[in-house]
Structures are given as C-alpha cells and as structure tokens.
Amino acid sequence: MATFVQIVVNVPAVSGIFDYSIPDPLLGKVGVGHLVIVQFGKQAVQGVVFRFIDQPSVQDVKEIAELVDPEPVLTQAQITLAEAMAESTLLSLASIVSLFLPAGLNQQVDIIYDLRIPDYAPQKSTVESRLIRLLQERGPLRGRQIDTHFRKVDWRKSAGYLVRRGVLGSQSVLPPARVRPKFIKTAQLAISPESAAAAMDDLGKTESTQTRRKKALQFLMQVKDAINVSWVYAESGCNFADLQELEERGLIRLFESEIFRDPLEKAGKEVKRYTGSQIDRYTTQQEIELTPEQNTALQEIINALSSSTAHRPFLLQGVTGSGKTEIYLRATAEVIRRGKQAIILVPEIALTPQTVRRFLVRFPGQVGLVHSKLSEGERYDTWRRARAGSLNVIIGARSALFAPLQNLGLIVADECHDSSYYQSEPPFYHAVTASQIYARLAGAVCILGSATPSIVQRYQAEDAGRRTVTEESSEVVRSMTRLNLPNRIVEAGLPPVQIIDMRDELKAGQRGIFSRSLLKELESTLGRGEQAILFLNRRGTATYIFCRDCGYVLRCPNCDTPLTYHVEKPGPVEGSNGEIEHARLQPSMFGLRCHHCGYERGKPNVCPSCGSRQIREYGLGSEKVEAEVGALFPKARTLRWDWETTRQKESHDMILTHFAAQRADVLIGTQMLAKGLDLPLVTLVGIVLADVGLHLPDPFASERVFQVLTQVAGRAGRSERGGKVVLQTFDANHQVIQSAAQHDVDGFFRYELEQRRRLGYPPFSRLVRLEYRHHDTIVAQQEALKLAGKLGELLTNEQWKSINVIGPVPCFFAKIAGLYRWQIVLRGSDPAAVLKDRPVQAWLKDWRVEVNPISLL
Fold first, then answer.
1. pTM of the model
2. What's the CA gap between 632 and 197, in Å, rounded?
3. Does the domain at residues 110-173 carry the CATH identifier 1.20.120?
4. Where in the chain is the domain with CATH 3.40.50.300?
5. Confidence of residue 289 (pLDDT cuts 50, 70, 90)
6. Are 99 and 110 in contact, with CB atoms under 8 Å apart?
7. With 70 as the cut, is the pLDDT of residue 747 above it?
8. Among residues 604, 678, 600, 669, which one has the least CA distance to residue 641?
9. Domain with CATH 3.40.1440.60 in the chain
10. Which segments of 376-443 does DSSP mark as H helices, in order?
C-alpha cells in the first residue's frame, strides 16, 4: 500500500501544499521535516515534507524523486510555526519555509537560456541585443546569472519573446546546493614512535628529501591525534608527495576529517583576554549580585520555566544599565540546567560581539552565531551543529530565530522595540511577534527586553488579563507580563540631558554644526581623557546637492530622492600596531550616492539644468561631523560607525573593540550607536540633530524618534564617572524632545497612546498595507484605483463595517529603484480577515501585502 505525504514546494509564488507518494526505495528514510526533490509541473523543485496523510486529494500522485539530506531540516515545532506565520502574514507557506533553510542549501528552480540562432540581429530592442551579445560571449547562462548583467532592467519579457521566436532555447533546472560539509586532509603516525625512529635513516634518495621527510615524521611522533597536513607542512617544509611516500611505507596514515566552520572560534580563544577588563565589565565568570527587582523578575521567569502550562511572554522593561543582560544569562543557565536550549536575538549585527562575549564566558563551547555577514559555509555549519544538538545557545539577528533547536526552552528578544526585527522585504514578518508565537508552540519562555518598548508592546503588558485588538486572530499572541527593573547598577542614575535650541544659537551668531555648550563639553571631556559619542541619524557629508542659481536638486534617476554627497574612507583597517588605519582616499570615493537603491555618480562641475557653476552641498551627515571634529580638535582620535564603515565582516567588532580600549576619543555614528552598547568610559553624548525623522507623515514616526533618542542618551554615564547628554534641536518644545530629555518613558507612553487613540491607530486598531510597484507611474496609479474600488465595494458588506480604506495614494518615497509606488491601507479590528478569501487573494497577485506594518512611508 502506497504511503502519501504533503509537501510544501520551494516555489514562493505558489501557495498551498501538495500531495506526493514515497517510492519503495525511500520508505523509512523520508519523514516529516525532510528536504526532498519532487517533480512540480515540468520542473524539478525542492520541497519539505510537512505531514503524512492517509489518502491524497488527487488521483494522479507523483513520487518523491530524491532525498536531499538524511536528517530532517525542520523540527515539528518549526513546521507548526511556519504554518502559523503564513496564516498571520497572509504569505505563501513556501515563502515562510524558505526562512528556515540556510542560504546555499535552499535552492529554487532557475531557467538556462542558450542561443539557437547565433547570427540573429534584433531590429529594435537594445535589451534583446544585450541579451544575445551576452549569450554569444558567455554561452548558456542561468536566469540568476543574467540578472547580474541587467540590474534593474526587466530582460525576461524580451527573453520570452526570443524563446517564442526560436532564437533562444530555455530549460528549467534545479541548481545543486552551494554548501556542503568541509573536509581537510589530516595525517597521523601509523606505527609506534620507536618503530618510526628506527625508520628515520632511509626516507629519501637525496639529502633534502631525507631531511624534509624526517622532520615530518619527527613532528608526527610528537602529536597524539590526527592533525591538519598544513601544520605538518609548516613545521617540516615537506609537501603532500612526501606524506604520500611516508604513507606507502606504512609509517603514517592520511585521511580526510570533517571540520566545522565556526565564526566564534577566534572569539572563543580571545574571550579570556577580555574577561574582567574595562572593555566589558559584565564579561566575567563571577556572578553579579542581583538587585531586589532583578531577583523578583528572575524568579518569575524561573517559575514559568517550571510550569507545564502555557504562559504569557515577559516584557522586561528597564532603563539603560538596569541589568537585563544578567537576567538573560541566568535564565539561559537555568534552561541549560534543565536540558533545554535558548535563542538570544539582538536587533543588529553591531550588538553581537558584546553579547557573544558575555555568553561565551558563561557557556564556553555551547554558543553558536547566526547573522547575514557570515559566509554561507559558516551559517550552514552552525545550522548543522544546532540541528545535531551540540549547541545550547544560538545568538544572532532575526534569522537566528529559525535555528533548528530540538528542545527549545527560552527565546530572548533584546531591544525588542527595534525596527530591525521587522523584515521589510518579502516575506514580511516581525521576529518579535514570531518569537512569541514560537515560544507558545514550543512550550518555551519568551522574554522581550527594552528600556523603550513599543507602544503596542507596552499596551499589551499594562494589564495581563486584557485582550487587545492587536492580537493575532489565531490567539497565539496574547497580553504580556510586565517586569520592571527601575534601579540601575550604576548608582549615579540616568545622565542629565541639556536641550540646546539651535534657533537661539543662530541668533547668537553660532552657525557651525556644534552649539557653544556642546563644544565646551566636548573640550572638557577630551581634556579629562574621557570619551564622547556624537550621534547623527544621517550618513554622508551633505544631505543633498543643489544649484544656488536655479535651485535644481540632484536626484536619483531610479528613486527621485536627493542624492547624498560622500567623501568617505573605505572602512576600518587594523594596522600592525593595533591602531585603526584607513586606506588612502581614492578619487572614486568622492561622489553622490542614493541610500535607497545604491545608484552612484560623480559630483558635476556645472548645474545640469542651467549650466551654472554654483553647485553646492547642503545639510550634514556623519562624515561631515567627523571632518568638523577633526578640524576643531586636531589631536582627537575619531572613529565613524555607520553603514559605510561597517560593510566588512568583522568591522563592527573592530570599531567597538578599539573604542572600548581607548584607542579613539570620539565615536561618531548613526542609529547603530543606539543599540544597547555598553561603553563605560563614555561620559558625554552629543545628539547633533534630534529632529531627523520627527515630522515624517507616518503614525509611528514620533515613537521611532523617541526610542532612538532615549537609547542613545543612555550610552553616557554607564560607570561611576557619570555622564551628560547635550541634545541639539530646532524644535525644543516638541513632546518627543521633552520626554526624551527627561528620560520620561511613562510620560511619552501616555502622550503617544492618546494620539493613537484619537487617530485610530494601533493598539486601537490593526493595519494591513497594500503596495503596488510599476515602472510606469500611470499603470501604478490605475492599478491602485482599481483595487481600491473593488475593496470599497467589498467593504459595504455588513460583515466588514468596522474596516475602512485609506488611499490609494502615492507612497511618501514615491519612486524607489525605478519603480513607482502606490499604497492602500486597511484599518480596523481585523483587516487581514478581509483578504483571506480566494477571490480577494487573486486581486492581490502583483501586490506587496504587509500585515501590521511598522511604517507607512
């Protein structure tokens, strides 16, 4: 009797789950969670087995063609989580499943194109000409290979036309996995050391050969276990032919050994160097004495770990330095003691070095790291070690949530308010929401930690027994239990914040970047040998470039947004003396860049509109702040920490380590500085311009600005030295500025909650954002109007009377990467329910659908 299974095929555009049978050779080998290859239509695709079924829903059932991995790639809890996420986000199950598979193992069908008529000459289309010329030069190519030659150009329609004309041939293909286990050649002594010593005299015909082989044999006599042959080469000067000869003589054995590519291998060796140093006062094996509030919070978490029933997530709210990390560490220790595992999420890669060091000291050899800047091999091996149960703690950004831990006991989302937890490109999901769902399904405890939780998170935690309209319809996200940590470990308290109204500075004739107070405090701080942070939420040297004669602003041709002027250093380079050096500036580093799509061009000498030479830069960015500090304080050592300087793999850790070791005096950066960093030697934080983003037409703008200002202000005074914050603004009386200056989290929550109540935004409603993109602005507008009309008719039904439509309107950033953007927002108690019917889903075929978006820009 045939055995049937349901499989999610790895074709993100396809919704649903499909029935297949298991052929006899694979019976007993294929189970739930296995990655297989199946025939889907006319193409071979990857798929994941979700469940066994008694009877298929169709008569003609295809067989599984191949088993990709003998071990399951998804656990049962992960399968349940994937289904819950697909249900709550309205995305295809296949697109969600792709999140769980490591890059390189997860492969999708591609098409190989080859040239059938070599001398074909297109009459009109330049895209066709480029495509044919490319295939003439390179031969047959896969679609993803062609993509690299046609950035932001839709070449596939031209290719389809040429295929129909017989000019090109096309064939679907499933590329092999790009990742596989890594093996190295190793050598080991095959006989006793005494026997090896007796064979030393006759190892080669020439003196040099004899010497090399003798040294190699002597080295292996001193090593007990098999060793990488590269070490043998280094110690003896021999080569692989020498080792092969020694093996043929029966003196040694050569074989291959698997090694794991561990991104934490270096950190593990260095962690003792950091232990107990000023770099990180929490990196110590000696446990810190907990405050009464910490003890109370920890005990509640431990009680939840002991409970056999489902429990609400914990919102651990505490001001900067209140000791949240110590609670994470102790909760993790308790989970491991119980034979379970933990996932520790941080919003940014910038935070992983500090977090990893703290956990490595407490749990040596048990920690794995996951984030996007690791190589595919490192991520694959960490994923395999997690699957095998050899790692008890996984640390990383949002993708770390999908590590295949078999016995999950704890999920921590530190800085849970941070927008980086939201994936803003398909498939859309919020890692904090997914963490809450996952913990419930896996019977684990979920801790969300922040000094400034989001309005929705705080509202959910205000009354643990209250249901809110922001909960998922499947009731997997419930109200939270709030745990407060009001006391700081540092007795000095939160640093005082001085508000500087830059309008008064202008009236007083101070027209520079820095106010008189900030200059005075910066000079004093440097004079005392202490450190300062200067924060500005903008990159670049100038915000935009314009013509003084006609007012023309240089814009990106793809996005229609102003280009930013950069005079940048290519990134940090560690010199031989341990100091950070920078490569010499190249002329190509001086230019204009779009921060949306990456478009670059040189700065023109004359205005493209009127021909004037009065082309000037306006505004300021992090590069300009760095240059200004260098001009005003030439002896001050500066470091810049923004997207441009952190593109290399270990640049985050390098910058942080050098600054913490006092190899620089002033750290200048963007939002990365607000991400929970612990820098006890910093006594001054200067917020160069607090108003950035404050007046954007987005209901969540005020919350984002308040969070980043409060967080960055907390970087000062994290030691007994104390600290001070100077906040520069052109809108000193704004509620956000006043609340941030007073560290008034509760006051801002009450103010913002009332604004949300008045306007009908979350947590008093839920949102679904629908976005349409097209190269033609008219088409984009017409499609948006068409969908709005259909939705308007649908919502006249009594069932949906609580849902209203906002729009359609152009997005605030109306054009990105050459595509015009229009959006429709549905608002109500459960707007996602409107879109779950199949006819409505057909309307949304070419739309981007975001449930509970974090921005409407």
1. 0.84
2. 70
3. no
4. 265-485, 492-539+621-759
5. confident
6. no
7. yes
8. 669
9. 3-100
10. 376-388, 431-442
